[in-house]
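Researcher: Here's the sequence for the chain we discussed earlier.
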Amino acid sequence: MYQGKFKIKNPKKYLGDYNNIFYRSSWELSLMLWCDNHPNITNWSSEEIVIPYLCPTDNSWHRYFVDFYIKFDTNEVYYVELKPERYTIPPEMPKTKNGQSKKKYINEVFTYAKNQAKWKAADLYAKQNNSKFQVWTEKTLKSLGIKLLK
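Model: Thanks. This is the structure I predict for it:
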């Protein structure tokens, strides 16, 4: 599993503490490298933007740290959540009725509901700031030409 501290090449582009950038997956590392080196990205950050959201699973307010903030030289700004494609679609009820698969399904439903609440709050936040919120998957990264590390 990829985890570690990111060593930035272009600290002037980073908004936040560039000595404390951490990645938790190979996809995050791939996106960080892309942001750091892309000539049309003027600013970026990782988990520096905090958005409050009401979680439907416990009806309490929480803080959502958006994975990435990316600003291009066109002044377009994106708030980006990086997730595997399978986490962006509602979970399916398992065909078997054993306790383990039922427990797994319930956990997936709670996670999906929580993510939907986060993403709804992030979308509203982005619109209020004349920007866009997007969930990027492995397909998005590939379509942008970002080489995924294995």
